[in-house]
Amino acid sequence: MTSPIHDPYAKPGALTPAGAEPIVRLEAIEKYFGTNHVLRGCTLEVYPRETICLIGRSGSGKSTLLRCTNFLEEPTVGTVEVDGLRVEADPLHARSTDHREKIRQIRQRAQMVFQEFNLFPHMKVIDNLIEGPIRVKGIARDQAVATAEKYLAKVGLSEKRDEYPARLSGGQKQRVAIARALTMEPRVLLFDEPTSALDPTLVGEVITVMEELAHEGATMIVVTHEMQFARESADRVYFIEEGTFVEVGPPEQVLDSPRDERTQRFLSRFLVAPATKPAPTGPSADELFREQTGHLPLH
Amino acid sequence: MTDSSSPGAATLRQAEAGGLDPIVDQIRKARVAERRRFRLIFVVTWTIVIGVVVGALFAAGKIDVGFLAKWYEYILGGVYITILVSVASIAVAVVFALFGALGRLSSVAPVYALATLYVSLVRGTPLIVQILFIYLALPQLIPATASIPVLLLGIFALAFNYGAYMTEIFRAGIQAIPRGQIEAAGALGMTGPQTMRRVILPQAIRIVIPAIGNDFIAMIKDSALVSIITVQELLWRAQRVGQSNFRSLETLLVAALVYWVLTIAFSIVQERLEKRMAESDRRI
To answer: Is the CA virtual torsion A164, A169, A172, A173 positive or negative?
Structure first.
């Protein structure tokens, strides 16, 4: 076992209980697709109840890094630790029973929400939710249903309990997908561009659910282009380019006054996040909106 | 949606009140009439052609009606065996195909090799040779097989053959399941076999059901081949009665007609089934 490599930027978030250790550690993750070097030594630590956003242009490696966390992609080199469970990348023995069992343990603890929802189309909403708890965790059906109903209510879709996914809108599908991940009662949630496949008018309802989760203290790693969400909810933002972290820090630093020229160039494409913003003198537009309406602006 | 002030809403109200230009209704009526005429001509053509052929046969005195009256019940008794053989064979073939497809998709070399060997061997030899081999050659190898009823041998031979063809259909069906489904199951923590059983196969089955239906219709006709190993189905009975009385024209006509009616009937069932599935796909 190599000694742990630490993320120099990580520090316990505002909601992290005192003395808690990081719940996710990605240590010097390297990933090659063939000869294409996609991740070049990414080290990242997430403390309990933190929300971390990974941002960067498409092809920068942010989704790959997230998918390395639950081994949907086997890292070429590096170590992943989730909730005390350490797994070293082992691409040559990726199919061994032992390695796969450890990965399954990690996946139960780190649930993923996909860009394309990936609900099971042949199952009703409720069956989508209880499938994992029953088959993977071996939970009794009654108990799984009760848990599922609780989280379905949380995402505001109790009345869709017995619908098939095809009858739902994109935003509803993604909220069901979030409920499916929550019903597994994971230690950390992984979001892989959860709003990128959505019609712009449906993004808001999904972001609202995610913000609620973040503010309640769920541990989340979010790959996203929603800068508004990152600014509102992230404890830290990691800007990744060509497989390395170029700039890391609290959102107001990375998003509002980025130091690196590459970060500035990337952010200049987002109207909601001006690369150079004057020092805030009063409440932001969002804060004013919230004061007046009691909720966040929909995107 | 129903914003009364928008110009679109006005048109909508007009349409609902039936106030559209009369030409729209005329066009619709003309289309319906044309479709009806087309169908009528279709039916008339069939009736004329079949009527002329059958009428000519009777008129020429080529059909011995008395003979048919005596034997048709015995021949039609074979329909039951034909359907039994077809249903049983397609059911067993589905099992062969399922294992064949899993083998063809396996990354375990010997499993893949065996599945590929099965498909290659069966598809590379005539069905009639396979049937005769199981009936005549197998008892030479394993004498105990001589005591197996021919009905079971026939069902096995047909299932073994169709299973190989359906293996490729099943494989395609399994491969048609989007990668995201497999990833979602994996991300929940499901094992490979769980993913296959709970997520991939239930969706793949829906994809291959129309193909199974087509194969079933083909099976009804190919089931006639087991008459050669004395399974007493429709063709065997027609042959037996026909040959011994030198009346094959009558008996083969009856057999052909019955196969035809059966395939038409099951095609209609198949069509209905597909339509229903397409509807539930819209729902699901």
So the answer is: positive
Domain enclosing residue B30, as ranges:
23-62
Q: In what order do the strands lie in the sheet with A244-249?
A: A110-113, A188-192, A220-223, A51-55, A236-241, A244-249
Q: Which of residues 150 through 209 in chain A touch B, CB cutoff 8 A?
A: 164-167, 180, 184
User: Is the CB of B284 less than 8 angstroms away from the CB of A166?
Assistant: yes
Q: Do A120 and B181 touch (CB under 8 A)?
A: yes
CA–CA dist B68, B81 (Å, integer): 20
Q: Is the CB of B202 less than 8 angstroms away from the CB of A122?
A: yes
| A285, two tokens | 């537009």
Q: What is the ipTM of this complex?
A: 0.87
- Round to whole Å and give the CA distance between B159 and B127: 11
Nearest CA in chain A to B182: A118
pLDDT tens string B227-279: 999 999 999 999 999 999 999 999 999 999 999 999 999 999 988 888 887 76
Residue A66 belongs to a domain with what CATH number? Answer: 3.40.50.300
Query: Of A3, A46, A1, A39, nearest to A25 (Cα)?
Result: A46
Domain extent for A66 = 24-278
A69 has a chain B CB within 8 A of its CB: no
**Does B17 reside within a domain?**
no
pTM, full prediction = 0.82
Give CA B47 to chain center in angstroms.
26
User: A122 vs B284: CB contact, 8 Å cut-off?
Assistant: yes
Q: Which chain A residues have a beta carbon less than 8 Å from that of B281?
A: 166
Q: Which residues pair with A190 in a beta bridge?
A: A112, A221
Q: Judge: A184–B188 Cβ closer than 8 Å, yes or no.
A: yes
Q: How many CB atoms lie within 10 A of CB A150?
A: 13
Q: Is A28 within 8 Å of A44 (Cβ atoms)?
A: no
Q: Which residues of B touch A180 (CB under 8 A)?
A: 188
